[in-house]
Amino acid sequence: MKKLVRNAVVATLLTVAGTTAVVASPAHALPYPKDNESITIVYYSDASRTVEVGMLVYGNCLDDFEYGIRTAYSTINRTTCPRDL
Question: What domain of life does the native source organism fall in (predicted)?
Answer without folding.
Answer: Bacteria
